[in-house]
Amino acid sequence: xxxxxxxxxxxxNAQNSGLVMSPMMISFIIGSIxxxxxxxxxxxxxxxxxxxxxxxxxxxxxxMNMDINTEFPMVIVNMxxxxxxxxxxxxxxNIAVQNAFPYxxxxxxxxxxxxxSSLGGVIASPIFGSILxxxxxxxxxxxxxSELRDLPGDLSQIDPQTMLTEQxxxxxxxxxxxxxxxxxxxxxxxxxxxxxSLTAGITNLFEVGLVFAV
Length: 214
Prior knowledge:
By secondary structure, the chain is mainly alpha-helical. It has helices at residues 2-10, 14-19, 22-42, 45-64, 72-99, 106-143, 146-149, 166-176, 181-213.
């Protein structure tokens, strides 16, 4: 959901919002390498796992506190913090699980661990999507100016995905151009309401993510 925030709130285009995930992917790798080196030298993976989980919590808090005024560099910093925590924790969990079972069960253990990890993602994704959608709609009902509520089409029910590309925004701007000089101002009010509502929905999503992180 971070590319959605970067594209819909920060305002980067679809290509840049995808590339901006690179710092998190790189921090995954760095966190994994650093955690592996520390564990090799100390052998204390439980303490290191607690520290890594704490970093994930901090990263989740940083993401939760992003708002409509959050700038691109701050988003990168927040992603790097979260990525370092996740990258450090994941290999430690694998080792902890493997150390808890005899060698003859390694195939079953590894397969089960991968399965439940994938299952968690499959379950969480639609739940988070529902939280985002509900938060967006609730906020849109209050963020939309009164003069826009009376327009045909019920703009409070607009899908934020339809406003993410420049082409879609231009098409919407052309529709508002029919209202004359006031049309551009009304369009900017709509864009602001969409950004505020999208931020509210994503903030709700990260709040739930923080609970799981804790």
